[in-house]
Design brief:
Layout: E1 16-17, H1 18-24, H2 30-38, E2 42-44, E3 47-48, E4 54-55, E5 61-63, E6 74-79, E7 105-107, E8 115-121, H3 127-131, E9 139-145, H4 153-159, E10 162-163, E11 166-167, E12 172-177, E13 180-185, H5 192-199, E14 204-212, E15 215-216, E16 225-227, H6 230-239
Parallel strand pairs: 8-14
Antiparallel strand pairs: 1-4, 2-3, 2-5, 6-8, 6-16, 7-8, 9-13, 9-14, 10-11, 12-13, 14-15
């Protein structure tokens, strides 16, 4: 199971809301697009756009900016166990509490008990391209279970597990020890790995994400981050169709 060299880009339906159109074209996030529209910086067929306007594929859309766009930034972050990705409840700590740059945000999430790689960025353009399961980008995890894996565990989990009426997509598993395995998924439903393991009469006692597409956690310590730049970033964005 490998990332496709040429990403499959589903055809977007028209007419489309102007803020979604601008986000897909890489001008900004949807929220940023609304700000551009409110600031009278967007024209549709020569007329100022209004919030909620829709455009057709044949429409001429102009974005008038006085200043060059600020370069986007991307970081690999090693989320510690016990930290919420975002939207913490009373007394909980979230990722933004651990980083100095408050303009970046996490792409996707890891549950509170899990740790490992999460990508932080200020580039809202790639959110859907990374998280939408239609694109089938790989994510890798190392998992420790409470008891020994059954002899049929690898075959069953790779072929898909029924969890609450849904059959998971085929995945790849490498057993490292009698209760430790590496799993590579192309989807990421809520608590998916924990639920898959539970369906096979075991439980997850430790879960760590080690890789997202070509971005690897490597030796990054818990709570630390590093900037994604150079060839690593170029490949990452290319796989996302940017």
């Amino acid at each position: 199971m490998k990332d496709k060299k040429v990403p499959i880009i589903p055809k977007e339906p028209y007419p489309m809301r102007i803020n979604k159109y601008l986000a897909l074209k890489g001008h900004s996030t949807r929220r940023g697009a609304d700000e551009l529209i409110s600031g009278k910086k967007v024209l549709i067929n020569g007329k100022l756009a209004k919030l909620g306007d829709k455009v057709n594929e044949s429409d001429n859309v102009e974005v008038r900016l006085k200043h060059a766009k600020k370069p986007y930034t991307y970081f690999a972050f090693n989320k510690p166990a016990g930290v919420i990705t975002h939207s913490p409840q009373h007394g909980e700590k979230e990722i933004k509490d651990l980083i100095p740059n408050k303009d970046i945000f996490p792409l996707g999430r890891l549950d509170k008990e899990s740790e490992g790689l999460i990508i932080l960025t200020d580039d809202g353009r790639i959110t859907d391209k990374l998280l939408n399961p239609e694109y089938e980008h790989t994510k890798e995890y190392i998992v420790t279970t409470g008891t020994k894996l059954r002899s049929s565990f690898k075959e069953k989990i790779e072929n898909g597990i029924f969890i609450e009426g849904y059959k998971t997509k085929p995945c790849r598993v490498k057993v490292l020890k009698e209760n430790v395995f590496v799993i590579t998924l192309t989807e990421e439903k809520k608590h998916q790995i924990r639920r898959m393991v539970s369906a096979l009469f075991n439980e997850v006692v430790h879960l760590k994400r080690t890789k997202i597409m070509n971005i690897e956690l490597g030796t990054l310590k818990s709570g630390d981050w590093r900037e994604i730049i150079g060839a690593e970033l170029e490949l990452f964005l290319k796989q996302l169709g940017r």
